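Weekly structure sync - notes
Attendees: PM, LS, DV (DV joined late)
Agenda: review two folding runs queued last week.

Item 1: First target. Sequence and structure tokens pasted below for the record.
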Amino acid sequence: DQFGSSKPIIESDRVEGTAVFNRDNHQIGTIQRLLIEKVSGRVLYVDVTFGGFLGLGAHHLTLPWGMLTYDRELEGYHTDITESQVRGAPTFYKEDRVWPGPEREEQLSNYWNSVAQRAR
């Protein structure tokens, strides 16, 4: 596979552009970028694009990195997030792609934490 089975580390440009699949193994989006916490260096979120053609009409969704797992057979990332959870999710960026304030970060974190708790 493109990521190599023995590599414990992967470069961000190899993650960007990788497909994201739902629980039925249908591609639902593509990883656009990783959102990394400056101080710790941990990947916290991933910006996934859904729909559109050549970037026109595409919708962005910010998912917690921990809600994705790499699937070697699909050569992409897999998530159990449902369509209804996606529809209710807050977006991280606004249309002008300006970094949001701490309120938006807290809203995003609270939403996905509640989704994870309900899934248990």
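Item 2: Second target, run right after the first with the same settings.
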Amino acid sequence: MNVAIVGCGWIAQEHLKIWRKLSGISVIAVCDLNEKAAIRTARAWKIPNYYTDLEKMLNLHEVAIVDICTPPQTHHNLIVKALELSCNVLVEKPMAISSKEAEEVIIAQRKSGKKVGVIHNWLFEPVMIKALSMKRNGRLGQILSAHVHILQTRKDPMLATKTHWCHSLPGGRFGEVLPHPTYILQSLIGHLVVKSVMARKVGSYSWVPYDELHVTLEGEEGFGSIYLSFNAPKYAIFVDIYGTKGMVRVNLVEQTILEVKRKSIRRLSKAIESLRQAYQLVASIARSAILVAFHQWRSGHEAYIRAFVDSVIHDKEPPVSLEEAYENVRIVEEICNAINY
């Protein structure tokens, strides 16, 4: 199965590491408007062909999957063109930057009959997979609310670079990161309605209007919220899930998961629960270390890419449906419009 990469930035390098692990896959070409970047990537990975034009590349080679690793502003046009040239498409989130563009992608996909895989990678991180399994099997009971906290420092490279492409997105740096917490809440509490959006500025970058964001949402199964900060002392991502039978905190950076079940308020029960929580954290860390040591660790990106390849080979639905990806774009668009960035 031949694969071609579009966009030769840092995320493409991460994708290439994954493609090299998969048997039966050949990355035969790369494409970037910056010819030097295309040449550099082709040479570094010993890829035989490089291009600056997508259509030319796909007309000259038989490609099963086009892997789009470009900024979100370009996703819509590149997806549609690849579908018109009869290729399956793998694309970084989001699949478009407006609901209108997302609708056009869906129309193009239906017309082509090919598959489009939108990488919602945080859903496929090992600890998030476990948390979602706990939700599905009823272990947490009825979900009451879910909250995603993303804490970045002021040294965040995207935010700190005045000329970075993220600043031209709707919502700026918020618009780049918002798809992640949004699709997590979609998976936990269902169809989302935005209830409030609050933004403020704390940092000193003159090109950044706001660097703190709090969003409240209502889902079919409960309430939700998103908190984004670019003023934190440390990088962290937490997902808190509250149900009638239990509560879970997922730490996506440190890959730990903590389940809390309090059945009694007696002092002994509190002590036992504290010990159980400590054991869970140690067990999570140990499990991750063992997987890494034995080369069995799979990031969310790798897990998703493997699942998408399987959907192409066996003609199954991609791991994230286009309807889910469309809803993600719609919600992010609504939040960014409310920010008035």
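Discussion on item 2: The first helix runs from residue 10 to 19.
Action: LS to circulate a short write-up before next sync.
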